Write the C-alpha cells for this entry.
Amino acid sequence: MTAPKLLLFRAGGQVFAVEAGAVLEILPTTTPTRIPGAPPAVRGLINVRGTLVTVVDAARAIGVGDAVAATGGSLILVEHRSRPIALAVDEVLDLVTESDTILDRRASLPGVRPDLVRAVGASGGQTFVHIATDVLLEPLLP
C-alpha cells in the first residue's frame, strides 16, 4: 500500500497542502466570469473543456492575506461533491508523500480557522498547513 501524497501550494504568502488524491489537474490561471451575489472568495466561473468550473480564491477562502492576483498563479482543480472546483493559488510548489513529511495533527493554528487545519507539517525545510478542502469549500458553494 502506498503512502498518501500531498500537493503543496502557496496562497497569501503561506504554504498549504491538499490531498493529491482529490486533485484532478493543475491549470494556468484564466480570467473567470464573475457570478453576481457570490461570496468574495468566489472569483467566478471558467469553462474547462465544456464544463463550467467555479473558481475559489484560496487565500481569501482560508482567510490569509490578500487575494491572489487575477493573472499569474495556478488553478488546482479538486473534486468536491462529485464536481470539479478550481482553487486559485499563487504557486504550486511540490508533491510530497505523507511518510516523507513530519505531520503534527492539531486542532488549531494561529491565523487559520481551526476547522480547516488537518495537520501542520514540514517537508524539505518547508512548513505547511494541511487543509480540509471539504470544510473550506462547503460554505462557499450552493
